[in-house]
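User: Hi! I'm working on a homework problem where we have to compare a predicted structure to a textbook description. Could you give me the structure for the chain below?
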Amino acid sequence: MNPPVLDALIIGAGFSGMYQLHCLRDRQGLSALVLEAGAGVGGTWYWNRYPGARCDSESHSYCYSFSQEMLQEWEWSERYPEQPEIMRYMNYVADKFDLKRDIRFNTRVIAAHWDAPANLWRVETEAGQSYAARYLITAVGCLSTANVPKFPGLESYEGRWVHTGEWPHEGVDFTGLRVGQIGTGSTGIQSIPVIAAQAASLTVFQRTANYSTPARNHPLSPEFQAWVKANYGEIVQTMRETRNGHWFRIKDRSIFDVTDEEREAAFEESWEKGGLQFRSEFGDITTNLEANSKAAEFIKRKIRETVKDPEKARLLSDIDHPYAAKRPPIDTGYFEAMNLDHVSLVDVKANPIVEITPKGVRTTAGEYELDMIVFATGFDAMTGPLLRLNITGRDGVALRDVWAAGPRSYLGLQVEGFPNMFTITGPGSPSVLTNMPVAIEQHVEFITTLIAHMRAEGVARIEPQAEAVADWLVKVNEASHETLLPQAASSWYLGANVPGKPRVFMPYAGGMAKYRGICEEVAAEGYKGFVLERETALT
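Assistant: Happy to help. Predicted structure tokens:
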């Protein structure tokens, strides 16, 4: 028996999937359904429950902006919200718009294929359910596929191991345990101080030293909350106009426009303020290597001043890439935690991990006996969540094969050969280089308007032109090379954290505001770069 045909099938119930459901179902009156692998809404925040999990966008900017009522109703408690508070917010939104009735939880998609004769997408789930829809919209997020390194011997380990991206919902008690953590990216930097506060000992295995600036997190005062509510119109407008989608603007000045004393004072003030605004002090920090080196050396000096042990300080400040060329973390007590007597630091660049033994971790320098191992090794970012869906397009061609040498898309929204499939914040869009809700809302609204246009004009099928895909790939590469981003050879922006993954710079680095303008121009010119086929052409 064939399943009933839906207008749209959405995969994922995070920020993207929830808003896409609202736009298509409530604003367009379409039949839409969300399939979600987890037992609740939240997307990446449903899975990332590790100790210290916290957003690095400020709370009043890390939310939907499409509803004035929600902006006025909801109140965040902290400058940088913790995972449980973000989950409360996501459930508040889902309940406010009655979204859960059209979300199928505990439903993992294992395959999706394009049925050309029927002009439909057919989707299969792990439980054997089948779905059919005219439009397939992936809302699986950029950081939702955990990357567990294939260390030899992991299956022999007698202790317990966990990955920060698939954290047990019941939590983990580290009391009295000898814990080893592998990885010091954004996730590791957040989790280390919290684990250190519980564990009997914590051994941190660092391959790549990382910059981090203090978050200076704090409860939000009633006065600040009132200011935000009174100024949300201006705040939202700023987020839509800025390069990275944040509520603050990057200052239009060069590091070389000021004296050494003025630069130092600006950095000190920004350091004390905390957060991501450190990189906004000067406009050329992310584009000029000499300017960047001034910011980088300031942070390295702060690390050396904070960390008391000279060898730890050396390892933590021996950073091999420009500041912000990799995701720039912010932290609460990360470098301070390294001063604790029971926290040790192992340099696995100099002494690589050889294997996981039954008792712990063996490097070329020796074995470390551990009761628990925490993998803070990040994600198979951007492409991983999409490839895991096993999508096949026209003529049975697999997305995995089309992207074998790296992702190719048009605007990060569609892939040639996959008609009527849309990828929210897909590779080739600003996505992870921005404050994500801003990028998500723009993509969802573009897709919603495009589908409305198709229905009004009798267009049955849409996919990008080959030339448009090739041209966009050039633009993505050009945009990245106007910045210092490609200079971080180990960055997950390039897929470098996953063995065998093609080394391709995946996000669009031209900025959210510029990208928004490009999309508006594409739509104004009749969806330039897309092939639109009408109903009559298919019969």
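For your comparison, note the following. The longest strand covers residues 130-138. The two ends are 24 Å apart (CA to CA). Good luck with the assignment!
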